[in-house]
Design brief:
single chain; about 280 residues; alpha+beta; three-stranded antiparallel β-sheet; DUF1963 domain-containing protein
Length: about 280
């Protein structure tokens, strides 16, 4: 645990978010400022943190719970129809450390009214806000870096008139508007924004890994126009009229996406995490 991202309780992080949301567009009250100072007291240097030790296991944070009946593209192991995605509440290099659990919904009978929570979360962006799942099926295409040079040039030429109409660069029009949908998604194609494509063989059997799920900081891209806008919902997001750009409260790195790759031959083989 470090002085850059000192851990906070989930309750304090949620209270901090509520204060920022309630004070949007106005000055904070003295009580709000006092509460925020209690949650994040002014730092003194050098930073010295007293880290409390905990006995026993620490609960992981729930990230997503997906049923095959809602998301038929999941392709679960035989006999499973439920995917639960969890991640560690403490910071790991670059991005959160995830765990995948494939389960049979019918076998889950002892359901807790209140899921367990970790005593502390090291980074605000690791604590997801509860959201209702409303799947929307779309069609997308590979990033231009996964295409041949010939096809890239054809796409560039095809994009010239459309890009001109939307005042966009034809070199980036395909990736921004036609290729990869922003936001959280199951399946589809990864977007290669910060690294180049590379082989991703399964560590158990060597089969090429495929994208299972993408966890994104933002639901919409500023450079995508209205091409990938999700259905708007009143009050979505932390601020009134926010339209859900960051309704989950999750932040990957400095605002990136975390792709989870699984083995298509055996989804329960170890998965791969990749931030782009």
């Amino acid at each position: 645990m470090d002085g850059i991202n000192p851990a906070q309780s989930p309750a304090d992080l949620r209270l901090e978010r509520r204060i920022f949301a309630a004070s949007h567009g106005r000055d904070m009250t003295p009580e709000e400022r006092e509460t925020l100072e209690r949650i994040r007291p002014p730092r003194t240097y050098p930073v010295r943190l007293a880290v409390q030790s905990y006995d026993g296991p620490i609960a992981m944070l729930p990230v997503a719970q997906l049923y095959v009946r809602d998301v038929p593209d999941l392709s679960p192991p035989e006999g499973k129809d439920l995917l639960q995605v969890l991640w560690c509440p403490f910071d790991h290099p670059i991005m959160p450390r995830t765990l995948l659990f494939w389960r049979s919904a019918a076998a889950v009978t002892d359901i807790l009214d209140t899921p367990p929570e970790p005593p502390a979360v090291q980074f605000n962006g690791y604590l997801p806000e509860p959201c209702v799942l409303e799947p929307e099926q779309i069609t997308e295409y590979p990033d231009h870096l996964e295409l041949s040079e010939e096809l890239r040039e054809q796409l560039k030429q095809w994009s010239v008139p459309q890009a001109a109409e939307e005042d966009m660069d034809p070199d980036t029009y395909y990736d921004c508007v036609l290729s990869n949908a922003p936001g959280w998604k199951v399946g589809g194609w990864p977007a290669w924004n910060s690294t180049d494509p590379s082989p991703r063989p399964c560590s158990e059997c060597g089969t090429g890994m495929e994208v299972l799920m993408t966890v994104a900081t933002f639901e919409e891209g500023d450079d995508a126009g209205n091409s990938w806008s999700p259905h708007p919902h009143p009050g979505a997001g932390p601020y009134p009229g926010h339209r859900g750009y960051n309704a989950t409260g999750v932040q990957i790195g400095s605002g990136y996406r975390q792709h989870l790759f699984v083995c298509p031959a055996e989804p329960e083989h170890p998965h791969i995490e990749l931030m782009t």
